[in-house]
Design a protein that fits this description.
Blueprint lengths: L19 E2 L4 H17 L5 E9 L2 E8 L2 H5 L4 H12 L3 E8 L7 H13 L4 H13 L5 E8 L8 E8 L10 E10 L2 E10 L1
Parallel strand pairs: 1-2, 3-4
Antiparallel strand pairs: 2-3, 5-6, 5-8, 7-8
């Protein structure tokens, strides 16, 4: 039986860094979870690609990568002000910056969330996956692989389907691979979408 490892965690020293940077203790861990849960609860998750949290002295620096930063910031920055006010009551100083994600066609997190959103809208998953794969291959990438599993199209028996274009070599640590996993909640059950992009 093969042991599967997260493609991002496998490449952290070479291509990626940790999403949280602070001294390990119970207080920092609780505050980090509180910040992430607040962002996921109050903002639409399909527009959030990644959240980076760094603690310097007594302040937290939060960087949100979003496909639509205007929705996260809100009119006249009202959403950011509300977030700062909420954490100020809990004696947590937070500095927030929102950055727009570029090249959404080759962003694995954006692709997986768009596919899940389309499945919830009862669209044909094969057609949606092929459209995203063709768009991604227009960029200078080596390959893309998408796996979808669950009760597809409401079938009684759950199954898994894999779609692949180009070369996706996960075993080599020298290959830069972007990975994302998203869940789609349908009336038949939960459908899982995984995306690998080999640059």
């Amino acid at each position: 039986m093969g042991n599967k490892i997260n493609a991002l965690g496998f490449r952290i020293p070479k291509f990626y860094c940790w999403n949280s940077k602070w001294i390990l203790n119970k207080k920092n861990l609780i505050e980090d979870i509180l910040i992430r849960n607040y962002i996921k609860k109050n903002f639409d998750n399909k527009y959030i690609n990644n959240i980076f949290i760094e603690k310097s002295a007594e302040n937290y620096i939060v960087l949100i990568n979003s496909s639509k930063p205007g929705i996260i910031i809100g009119r006249s920055g009202i959403n950011i002000k509300n977030m700062k006010f909420f954490f100020k009551k809990k004696y947590i100083n937070v500095y927030i910056s929102v950055k727009e994600t570029i090249n959404l066609e080759i962003n694995s997190d954006n692709i997986s969330k768009n596919i899940c959103f389309s499945i919830e809208k009862r669209k044909n998953y094969k057609r949606i996956i092929n459209i995203h794969m063709e768009k991604a291959m227009n960029y200078a990438i080596r390959g893309i692989k998408i796996t979808i599993s669950g009760r597809l199209n409401g079938s009684d028996i759950a199954r898994k389907e894999t779609f692949k274009l180009g070369k996706v070599q996960l075993i080599k640590i020298n290959n830069k691979v972007s990975y994302s996993k998203s869940l789609s909640k349908t009336k038949y059950g939960i459908i899982c979408v995984k995306v690998w992009i080999n640059f």
